[in-house]
Amino acid sequence: MHIEDFEKILRRRPFRPFRITVTTQQTFDVSHPEMVFTRPRFVAVGVLPHDESPEAGLVMHWIDVQHIVHVHPILS
What we know:
The chain has one helix and six strands, in the order H-E-E-E-E-E-E. The protein is mainly beta. The protein has a single domain, classed as SH3 type barrels (Roll).
């Protein structure tokens, strides 16, 4: 995937939550556009840990855009 294509998805209005699937089959859900930022070759996705305890902080996952195999909407 090219970063420009990913940025088009991120800028859609109204925003629609989506799931990123990478080459390892790991997935990252993006529920809000402010949870993601892009660089020329990378996408950073902020994820809250599953336990969501008060001490748990946001975890940033850096994804090389070459490893993004699929981006699709999350249907509610």
